[in-house]
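Dear Dr. H.,

I hope your travels went smoothly. While you were away I took the liberty of generating a structure for the chain from your last submission, since the lab meeting agenda had it listed for discussion. I wanted you to have the full record in hand beforehand rather than looking at slides cold. The sequence, exactly as received, is reproduced here:
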Amino acid sequence: MEVFNALGRRKAAVARVYLSEGKGNITINNRKLEDYFTILQLQYIVKQPFLTIDRINDFDVKANIAGGGIKGQAEALRLGISRALLKVDPEYRASLKPMGFLTRDSRVVERKKPGQKKARKKFQFSKR
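The corresponding predicted structure, in token form, is as follows:
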């Protein structure tokens, strides 16, 4: 049984994904999908690549996720799964690409600048 691996990133989250033929089990940091992502919306985000290619119960996913928040982690996992599916069959690209699952979302938090309150917010200016 061949294992396909890929990396997905989003904000500060990094997901290492290991995809293999199986029964549709998704394990994240040695926990089930439902235990790790308790919010149904995040579970749906993770399953989107499989729903797009109509192979929801054909692959097992084992993932290690570190960093970021839960939304960033879910989207990093989605990217990792999509990239691993391409290694399984390059023809999946035709259905995954238009959905935007192969595009790395490069938006990250802007750094705080010196002499300012936050990245863009300034201290209140006093004329006198």
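Two observations you may find useful: Residues 70-88 form the longest helix (19 residues). The first strand starts at residue 3 and ends at 10.

With kind regards,
E. W.
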